[in-house]
Write a structure and sequence with these properties.
three-stranded mixed sheet; 5 helices; alpha/beta; 168 residues; globular
Length: 168
């Protein structure tokens, strides 16, 4: 919950790390919230980023939509915050919310792109005959490759919720 001791400990740690490391951007790689008060958690996090004068973005994990709101609806809410660099999804099939953030120099030349890949929620596996954690789909991989080609940006970094060895 956004008002508990553990949340404050987390925010204190973020504040300490930001003060020491001075990052330009914070990317949350999924499962920012796991409860029916999801929006309150996102709002508390956004206020913390404002307090720290930090730019931030979120890629969604498998628990982010477990409150009855779609990830797309949550993402639209995030766009209310000035320091949030999320964009509307450019790939949104099957409930995924994938997008790119363009990073440019002061003259507006693209330096690289940050891909935010939604790892989905749960999927039914024919092989194991049970629900398994979400995965990056073949369609998402195709979207990623086509989008990079259209943008003409060679350098990029990808953020997703699950480490790739687990996905493989």
């Amino acid at each position: 919950l956004p008002f508990g001791k553990n949340t404050q400990k987390c925010f204190d740690l973020i504040e300490k790390l930001v003060s020491e490391q001075k990052p330009n951007l914070i990317i949350v790689s999924g499962d920012l919230a796991l409860s029916p008060v999801n929006f309150l958690v996102y709002d508390a996090f956004a206020r913390e980023m404002d307090k720290l004068n930090m730019r931030w973005a979120v890629t969604f994990g498998n628990h982010d939509c477990h409150i009855g709101f779609s990830k797309a609806k949550i993402q639209k809410r995030l766009l209310r915050y000035e320091r949030c660099l999320n964009t509307l999804p450019t790939y949104a099939e099957g409930g995924y919310t994938d997008s790119f953030i363009r990073v440019s120099d002061r003259e507006g030349n693209d330096l690289f792109a940050i891909a935010l890949i939604d790892s989905g929620s749960y999927t039914y596996s024919e092989g194991s005959k049970k629900l398994e954690y979400g995965r990056i789909t073949k369609q998402q991989s195709l979207w990623y490759e086509e989008s990079l080609g259209k943008m003409g940006i060679e350098n990029n970094i990808v953020f997703c919720h699950f480490p790739l060895p687990e996905i493989m």
